[in-house]
Amino acid sequence: MEETGWNHAAFDDRHWTHPVETTFPGELLSQSAPPLKVRQVFSPISVKETQPGIYIYDFGQNASAIVSLKVRGEKGCTVTMRSAEYLTDDGLANQDNSGKNYYYSYTLSGKDSECWNPSFSYYGFRYVQGEGAVPEGIDNPLSLPVVEGLEMWHIRNNSETVGAFTCSNTLFNDIYRLIDWSVKSNMTSVLTDCPHREKLGWLEQVHLMSKSIVYNYDIRQMLYKTIRDMKDAQQPNGLITNTAPEYDIFSDDFRDSPEWGSAGVLVPWFLYTWYGDQSVLSENYDLMKKYVDYLTSRSTGHIVYHGLGDWCDLGPEHPGYSQLTSRGLTSTAIYYHDLCLLSRIAMIVGYEEDAAHYKSMAEEVKTAFNEKFFDKKKGYYDTGSQTANAMPLFLGLTPAEHYESVFNQLIKDIRSRDNSTTAGDVGFNYLLRILEKEGASDVIFDMNNQTNKPGYGYQLQQGATSLTESWNALKTASHNHFMLGQLMEWFYSGLGGIKPMNEEDYQAFKRFIIHPQMVGDITYAQVDFNSPYGIISNHWEKTSSGYRYQVRIPVNTSAYVYFPTTTPGGITANGLPVGEVENMVFVRKEKDALIYKVNSGHYDFYVESR
After folding, report:
1. Nearest to 125 by CA among 56, 188, 77
2. What does the pLDDT look like over 453-482, one tens digit per residue?
3. Does the pLDDT at position 200 exceed 90?
């Protein structure tokens, strides 16, 4: 039934059914985010007949994709292809938790060989179940159509790759690929949560995963687009809905959770600090202010109680609503963070009265938060969960006199669980960030360098090829979600050691830090990142007598480089003693490291261990 030339401008479509006009909130604009393209092609690694006439094509990788079919046969015959992330016990395509009944169907025109792929729909899958045809080379007594070729075409938007990571730990390299595939599979026209059943822009993952993504991909235009979507979705009362664009209107906490809606504040701030765009703050100030004022209106005694909380944490029940941490803790902590940032933003864009107001509000929320959730006798927050302690520590809610005890309680909980995490979608990000900030990357290493407990390694052991929705790789959940992928940021900033410095004063990596945290059995790591100023590299390795850094610092930038020694005489740069290198200035000694400010250039540093 296909009409020749239907997709060309000169085609006469007067006999087609007229489109139906509809309404949707928001302004119709040209697409500014990178276009979707076929980025990789997979051929089957195996083809098996699991039941009579049913063939399973295994492409070896779960990804956002479409099929590409080459087939020959009689006119009117139909080939059906069902995509799936995993298989049933009977070896059939299982769509129970990825959205069913989803299939591709192609009716032959009777040409010698016909090629087809869908133009308007994609799915997340690894397997394709073929029906109504036989693979070429298979006995065909019923004269069914013959599949001459079936490929999986991975599609995603064309955001530029800006990062690369590898290290000596093969499990960490596998985890990197696991997370990366979930990121790639959810970068389309919207940063989706999964590439199959929903394809919705759940906003918590946008701000919680931003740094993990931008070390790998330039998603600046995607984030601008996300802000426009949030503007379209924002309600008259200031609410920013959990999903943007808001294709489906959910109810209660699934439409209004502060940990989700706060992307309206956190994403513009992130664009400012990471890419150096101050205009994004002034242009979206009303979006941010209206949302923060909305949260204030929903607070009781400065505590915000509603929301999903630490989504999908590891508790006794099936993952979903927060189980181990009171939902008021995570929502109020995010509310406090919003207030602090909005005060700083107001000052930057020239609203000094607003800046003072929101700063005062933040102090009031901080006091109420500690009165509500901090147990002075026990020395921890709320239930003592990892999320309950990590969020106030990292976000500046913890009073200075209790900081050490709360941090020690956090470490104690992790160690008491044999280095297992319990944090969910929201809390895990802050858990990693506070451990890295306090130089406890050895704990991060121990938590993730294992395969026998729920986590990244466990998912790999269960056969996952992209990050799953639950830590324990449940088959009752999606097997291609990127919301738990925050370890990607640590690969670059912690293990690789490249991180921004004082983001408010030095945006876009004008000045940055190189401070690799050499932990566990890792003997080398290589990270490359194409920052807004140019490529930053740090390739470090342990040698028999010390440490070697191969560092690249872009023009018009400088870096604070941490050397793991307390003896300046043990450091050389490009073969010269560090004191003879003009582009290097000693800054200070910190714990077991010497810190030098290093200007742009290529350096081969060697640190002698003593």
Report:
1. 56
2. 999 999 999 999 999 999 999 999 999 999
3. yes
* pLDDT greater than 70 at residue 610: no
- Give the Cβ contact number of residue 329 at 10 Å: 29
Q: Partners of 608 in the beta sheet?
A: 546
Could you give the 3-state DSSP secondary structure of residue 216? coil
Long-range contacts of 346-352 (CB under 8 A, 24+ apart): 346/285, 348/272, 348/278, 348/281, 349/278, 349/281, 349/282, 349/285, 351/285
- What mean pLDDT do residues 334-339 have? 98
Pick 503 or 387 by higher pLDDT.
387
- Secondary structure letter of residue 161 according to DSSP: B
Q: Which of 161, 240, 151, 165 has the alpha carbon at shortest distance from 201? A: 240
Residue among 421, 390, 433, 482 nearest 176 (CA): 482
Identify the H or E element spanning 407.
helix 400-416
Mean pLDDT of 542-562: 96
Residue 412's region, left for phi above 0, alpha for psi from -120 to 50, else beta, is alpha
**Residue bearing tokens 């503007």:** 231
d(CA 141, CA 151): 25
The torsion angles phi and psi of 609, rounded to 5 degrees, stand at -85, 140
- What lies within 8 Å, CB to CB, of 275 at 6+ separation is 220, 507, 508, 532
